[in-house]
């Protein structure tokens, strides 16, 4: 708290994605469309699951939570990025920067935990189908979702504390389009080696450990599929491949960025755009285009609205 009170920096300035105004207009158009599609796609999945009784199962309960998290995750960074693309000077107050950092890590960590839970759900459904109704009942699912939000909150509070305890007395230029721990702590007026190591042990370890757990669960599932019927294998592979695509698209950038906070590469901005802007859009596309049950539910919901 003492370090925070001594902060002389009152705002940060983003360098953004480019200093070419033509590119900025192009980025603004593309990312505006992407953001709107992200909101519409994830809201559509939420509405479809809520108003379709046969989708009130653990798998779709987790999927609806994923859509909610994707809406929140993209909304933390994209609106501010779009605003910056229209302004010559891209600034954010110190308090708003810390708030953005907090919610970014809250929703990112919640998604990491949720994807891990979803992999466990598929493992139980495929490998021990007879025990599935008892192991993954709705009470357990609600408890797991509560636990992931609690874990995400604790993680984000720790990351925020590590950042705000450092003194910031200038410079205030962030080589990014949003506030995240690696670029922000580089501006601290003190040695940040220990803080960087704590970040690796927190964000990096969570990302890498959950990713390895996911890989292990999918390997077990693939081995167990040999005992399934041809139809069972097809359905299981379709579901698991969709899950694994989402896992790879989200975990790859997280591991790339948060396992080396003291090192920066020119490709970091591209990677950040991918997991804050693109991935939240791809999730609903992957889960709807590859899921016949969801597509049928959407068609029935549309017919019901038309004829009512």
TrEMBL record:
<dbReference type="GO" id="GO:0004984">
    <property type="term" value="F:olfactory receptor activity"/>
</dbReference>
<comment type="function">
    <text>Putative odorant or sperm cell receptor.</text>
</comment>
<keyword id="KW-0716">Sensory transduction</keyword>
<keyword id="KW-1003">Cell membrane</keyword>
<feature type="transmembrane region" description="Helical">
    <location>
        <begin position="25"/>
        <end position="52"/>
    </location>
</feature>
<dbReference type="GO" id="GO:0005549">
    <property type="term" value="F:odorant binding"/>
</dbReference>
<keyword id="KW-0297">G-protein coupled receptor</keyword>
<feature type="transmembrane region" description="Helical">
    <location>
        <begin position="270"/>
        <end position="289"/>
    </location>
</feature>
<dbReference type="InterPro" id="IPR000276">
    <property type="entry name" value="GPCR_Rhodpsn"/>
</dbReference>
<keyword id="KW-0812">Transmembrane</keyword>
<keyword id="KW-1133">Transmembrane helix</keyword>
<dbReference type="Pfam" id="PF13853">
    <property type="entry name" value="7tm_4"/>
</dbReference>
<keyword id="KW-0675">Receptor</keyword>
<keyword id="KW-0472">Membrane</keyword>
<feature type="domain" description="G-protein coupled receptors family 1 profile">
    <location>
        <begin position="41"/>
        <end position="287"/>
    </location>
</feature>
<feature type="transmembrane region" description="Helical">
    <location>
        <begin position="237"/>
        <end position="258"/>
    </location>
</feature>
<dbReference type="InterPro" id="IPR000725">
    <property type="entry name" value="Olfact_rcpt"/>
</dbReference>
<dbReference type="GO" id="GO:0016020">
    <property type="term" value="C:membrane"/>
</dbReference>
<keyword id="KW-0552">Olfaction</keyword>
<feature type="transmembrane region" description="Helical">
    <location>
        <begin position="206"/>
        <end position="225"/>
    </location>
</feature>
<dbReference type="GO" id="GO:0005886">
    <property type="term" value="C:plasma membrane"/>
</dbReference>
<dbReference type="GO" id="GO:0004930">
    <property type="term" value="F:G protein-coupled receptor activity"/>
</dbReference>
<dbReference type="GO" id="GO:0050911">
    <property type="term" value="P:detection of chemical stimulus involved in sensory perception of smell"/>
</dbReference>
<feature type="transmembrane region" description="Helical">
    <location>
        <begin position="98"/>
        <end position="120"/>
    </location>
</feature>
<feature type="transmembrane region" description="Helical">
    <location>
        <begin position="140"/>
        <end position="158"/>
    </location>
</feature>
<comment type="similarity">
    <text>Belongs to the G-protein coupled receptor 1 family.</text>
</comment>
<keyword id="KW-0807">Transducer</keyword>
<protein>
    <recommendedName>
        <fullName>Olfactory receptor</fullName>
    </recommendedName>
</protein>
<dbReference type="InterPro" id="IPR050427">
    <property type="entry name" value="Olfactory_Receptors"/>
</dbReference>
<dbReference type="GO" id="GO:0005507">
    <property type="term" value="F:copper ion binding"/>
</dbReference>
<dbReference type="InterPro" id="IPR017452">
    <property type="entry name" value="GPCR_Rhodpsn_7TM"/>
</dbReference>
